[in-house]
């Protein structure tokens, strides 16, 4: 029997690459979140992706929009159309900490031995919860906070994209058969899943395809 993993899946380029990578190694359960984000078409993409892949998919509802504090959850804060210095306004406070906590619970409930997350410390927007130190600290906490950890069977935290450029992430995904036209990365995609082409996420995605020498299959708003 194959080992099981919980894969955090947004429906974007990075997390979809992670799912494809994980499927080659684990029986996967994908975990997505409706957290009050500005655009939910990325979540629609996650549902469609897991349906085609035959992967069990759980969607967790939490309301980070009730707190605000980010351009992704508070409509009074504009999504910037140029790269920002420091930590950008698209950072959602504690988002990865909360997502990983749910993944931790799911791993114990479903008997998974690993959690897979697509954080990246190379081509990313400067979010503090996308750094190797964050994952190390969370893994240490998980060893203390879980039944499996206390019993000496610590969960693995798999971060296959951590040190890859966006171009190399795309190459990895293509090697695993990912159809990137079915993914949505834009912070403010429209109801059809078409990308704005100007936000941080769109810029990094565009540059990744250019650097990889691969045609960008993203659907953009005219």
UniProtKB/TrEMBL annotation:
Metabolic or biological pathway: Purine metabolism; 7-cyano-7-deazaguanine biosynthesis
Enzyme class: ligase
EC number(s) given by UniProt: 6.3.4.20
Binding site for ATP: 9-19
InterPro entries named in the record: QueC, Rossmann-like_a/b/a_fold
Cofactor requirement: Zn(2+)
Any GO BP: tRNA queuosine(34) biosynthetic process
Record bears the keyword Nuclease: no
UniProt catalytic activity: 7-carboxy-7-carbaguanine + NH4(+) + 2 ATP = 7-cyano-7-carbaguanine + 2 AMP + 2 diphosphate + 2 H(+)
Cofactor binding notes: Binds 1 zinc ion per subunit.
Binding annotation for Zn(2+): 186, 196, 199, 202
Gene Ontology MF terms: ATP binding; ligase activity, forming carbon-nitrogen bonds; zinc ion binding
Keywords: ATP-binding, Ligase, Metal-binding, Nucleotide-binding, Queuosine biosynthesis, Zinc
Pfam hit, one: QueC
NCBIfam families on file: 7-cyano-7-deazaguanine synthase QueC
HAMAP family from the UniProt entry: QueC
Similarity comment: family membership: Belongs to the QueC family.
Record's function text: Catalyzes the ATP-dependent conversion of 7-carboxy-7-deazaguanine (CDG) to 7-cyano-7-deazaguanine (preQ(0)).
PANTHER family assigned to the protein according to its UniProt record, in alphabetical order: 7-CYANO-7-DEAZAGUANINE SYNTHASE (PTHR42914)
Annotated protein name in UniProt: 7-cyano-7-deazaguanine synthase
Organism in which the protein naturally occurs: Acinetobacter schindleri NIPH 900
